[in-house]
Amino acid sequence: LCAIIHYLVRGQLGWLGLTIACLVPGYAAQLLSILWFRADGHTPGCCLLALHLLQLGLWKRYWDVSRAAAEKGGAAGEVLAQLGDVCVLRLLEALLQTLPHLLLQAYVVVAVDPAGFIPGVSAGLSLLSLAWALVSYSHFTYLMKPGHLSPPAAVILCLLLWRTGMLGTRVLALVLFARLYSFWVFAVAGVHWLLMSFWLVAQQTDIVAQPCLWRLFNCLLGAVYIFCYINVRPGPSRTRVAVFYTVSAWDVVYSMWI
């Protein structure tokens, strides 16, 4: 909201329109949240629909999780199910809404207005928000493993620093490349996306069973892999992580070098 007001006051209508456009994909997570409320037997009322229209539906879910945890205890199965829903929805919202906003504001700071305070703060908070969404999802998957308790705060902090550093370098490399070579950045990102998508197909992930949805899932996750790694297969992931970071490190070094 501050970034939108900032561009409106300064008359930068182009950046204003792009910033508003970054909000639109976030409604996919809000719509999915409404559908999940209906699937759970909760008929969405006017108040709930208004909250989702204002993109506050996930905050409502966080409130429900906090209240259920206080009443039933953090280890209850129902609480974990609600936590899983909100973590997945938050990750989806971050990838669809926060990530494009981060790229846009980072480009404004680097290429258009280096002294811009509001775009800089907005980009920094978006980076932390995206990193925290990934950490929250990892935390939930850790809790779902049999016999595992909640990791200590030091582990969560290390995960947050790792995700923030990884995302920050990827975004900075792409923004600097876009500043020098303009639309050629889409060619570089496209090649990376194709490599990651083919790699995911070769892994034969089985999260989605239908062939068409399976291909779509791999294509979407391939786009996410331009920026960060998300483990989608059970079992040890050491080799997959090594391959991902080898490709990502080469991509970052090459982009920074040219």
TrEMBL record:
It is found in: Cell membrane; Membrane. Keywords: Cell membrane, Membrane, Transmembrane, Transmembrane helix. It holds the Pfam family XK-related. It is a multi-pass membrane protein. The chain crosses the membrane at residues 13-36, 106-134, 154-176, 183-201, 213-232. Signal peptide: none annotated. The keyword Membrane applies. One of its GO terms (cellular component) is plasma membrane. InterPro entries: XK-rel, XK-related_scramblase. It comes from the Eukaryota. Belongs to the XK family. PANTHER family: XK-RELATED PROTEIN, XK-RELATED PROTEIN 5. This is XK-related protein. It comes from Orthonyx spaldingii. The lineage of its organism: Eukaryota, Metazoa, Chordata, Craniata, Vertebrata.
